Amino acid sequence: MMNKSIILLSGGLDSLVSLAICKEKLNIELAIFFNYGQKSYEMEYKASKSISEFYNIKLEEIDLNWLKAISTSSLNTNKTVPTLSEELLKEINITKESANSVWVPNRNALFINIAACYADAQNYSHIVIGANKEEGRTFKDNSIQFINAINNSLKKSTNNMVKVEAPLIRFDKAEIVRQGLIYNTPFKLLYSCYLNNKKHCGKCESCLRLKRALELNNCYDIISEIYK
């Protein structure tokens, strides 16, 4: 039986490139977008809609606003999102503080398990997620250990033993952009900022990591298009 797969789509770099890589290989038919009260909801959803239309896959939005009610994250509360500089990205203690500020409780595990309900009910073979090596250094739910652990869990919690696929798990952001270029990924459709501006703020950690990766690949036209 041919695979058919789900992607967790945020509209950002990692989920976009994961989709480009796996669209045909794993026959991705459904994108799931989560509204968990994030500050960047409107821009993330706009990007996800444009990306799903570009790749001709169905987009389904799931409302998780209750997660905002229990969260202490600066992503979905009134707390201020930390701003950094490119130099500070090299300081592990600083990036750990930033990661703690934006940490949403059990987010990736929750998203995967909801997608697994769809997969188990509708016989999807894989769930694709944009977990990667660079963010895995500060976010433990982006690590290869997490992917292995949740796959072991899904073997016991789903009848069809759906598998989580993380095609970027061994790549840093610059390598992810490089992969995107190989797959002719529409970078100008993405939105990776923690804030809800029309263009990327260039100051939050997510913006800085993306911009550095684009610079390392000489993608200055994309930078001028998506940044302030």
Number of contiguous helices: 10
User: End-to-end distance, in Å?
Assistant: 47 Å
CATH superfamily: HUPs
| Whole-number count of domains | 1
CATH third-level topology:
Rossmann fold
Q: What's the oligomerization state?
A: single chain
- DSSP, total strands: 5
CATH class, named Alpha Beta
Structural class: alpha/beta
Biggest sheet overview: 5 strands, parallel
Give the radius of gyration.
Answer: 17 Å
Mean pLDDT: 97
Task: Tell me the β content.
Answer: 5-15%
State the shape.
Answer: globular
Helicity, in percent? 40-55%
Which ranges are low-confidence, i.e. pLDDT below 50, for 5 or more consecutive residues? none
Strand order of the largest sheet: 3-2-1-4-5
Give the H and E element order.
Answer: EHEHEHHHEHHEHHH
Instruction: Write the CATH architecture name.
Output: 3-Layer(aba) Sandwich
Walk me through what this model shows.
With 228 residues, the chain is α/β, with parallel strands linked by helices. The protein has one domain: HUPs (Rossmann fold), CATH 3.40.50.620. The chain is 46% helix and 11% strand. The protein is built from 10 helices and 5 strands; from the N terminus they run E-H-E-H-E-H-H-H-E-H-H-E-H-H-H. Strands 3-2-1-4-5 form a 5-stranded parallel sheet, with helices on both faces. Strand 2, helix 2 and strand 3 form a beta-alpha-beta unit. Helix 1 packs across helix 8 and helix 8 packs across helix 9. The protein is globular and about 45 Å long.
